[in-house]
Amino acid sequence: MGDKNYVVLPPRVRAIPISDLTIFGGTEKYEIPEFVGRLEDQTYLNGDNFVLRIGYKGCPEPLVQWYKGQQPIISDPDSTKIVITADSAYAQLALFNAQREDGGFYNCRIENANGVRETGCHIFITNDGPGGPRGMQRSYRSVLYTPSQRYSRY
């Protein structure tokens, strides 16, 4: 067969860092899947439409799965309630006419032969207008939080 080296990979390879592998005389790059950005918590009114969109990368191209709570979300082609789309760079979940029961924790999982990554956010559906019910506040602050005003006695 000549002086060429051939690498035979098992069908499922895990935990390979980014590297160049020679496969059948060519070069192919393998990358652990990664999200580009993150999902943010959001609040909507009853009847609103919302879209969760997240960028990702990885080689080979990762498989995308959306979850609500711990249950996988299956996109029915005949349904007009939930539409899930994914291309080589973005995953998107669109939900139309949101109702209170549509609120909860939504999670996006990407997986390829090199690894798995997940990101998620809380979706709140309310009747009380933008910002949620009165008196409802976040119980945490972003690490990037800085007060917008400084208080002084003078």
From TrEMBL:
Keyword check for Cytoplasm: no
Any Pfam family: I-set
Domain of life: Eukaryota
Residue ranges of the TM segments: none
Claim: Repressor is one of the keywords in the record: no
Annotated Ig-like domain residues: 33-114
Keywords: Immunoglobulin domain
SUPFAM superfamilies hit by this protein: Immunoglobulin
InterPro entries the UniProt entry points to: Ig-like_dom, Ig-like_dom_sf, Ig-like_fold, Ig_I-set, Ig_sub
Protein's name according to its UniProt entry: Ig-like domain-containing protein
Native organism taxonomy: Eukaryota, Metazoa, Ecdysozoa, Nematoda, Chromadorea
